[in-house]
Amino acid sequence: MNLERFEETLSRLGANLTQWPTAERAEAEALIAADPSAAKLHDQATRLDTLIGAAVTPVAMDSAAIGRIMAGIDHRRHHDLTLQPTRRLFAWASAAMVVFLVAGFAAGAAIPVNQGEDTLAGLMFGSSGTSTSDTGSVL
Questions:
Q1: Which own/partner contact pairs does 23-28 have at CB distance under 8 Å and 24+ positions apart?
Q2: Burial code of 54-86, b = ≥16 C-beta within 10 A, e = fewer?
Q3: In this predicted model, what pLDDT tens digit does every residue of 83-112 receive, in sequence order?
């Protein structure tokens, strides 16, 4: 077994050599004993497996804690937090839609047809598009 194959098998099967197939286990143990870089890779994989094992350890819970969680899930107060369609909601949504449509129409009517994007930029950013020499002094 070479170092590249050992690293691939180590990432695939984990650092616990007892879970490896017998032939590969014997080759891996010989490589770990002979090559310090293989031993270092095995040590890193062992630490990673330990960290992962600690991260997925289930939390101990008694039946009272599980009952409190289930009671909280079943409580009706938490289920009815959605927006319910009512006449008032429909009226406010309709009024908002009308306001936005009127504002859009007014903005569209304010842009002259014969002028292009410069007029739109002037309306958006406050520039009139004309210089002071054309209109005289501005006060």
A1: 27/1, 28/1
A2: eeeeeeeeeeeeeeeeeeeeeeeeeeeeeeeee
A3: 778 898 899 999 999 999 999 998 888 776
Q: How far is CA 124 from CA 108, 119, 121, 132, in A?
A: 12, 9, 5, 20
C-alpha to C-alpha distance for 3 and 21, rounded to whole angstroms = 17
Amino acid (1-letter code) at residue 99: V
- The domain spans of the chain are 3-55, 96-126
CA within 13 Å, CB half, 110: 13
Q: Which residues of the chain have pLDDT under 70?
A: 74-82, 112-117, 119-120, 127-139
CA distances to 1, 3, 6, 9, 61 from 35, in Å: 11, 9, 11, 16, 45
42 and 7 Cβ atoms separated by less than 8 Å: no
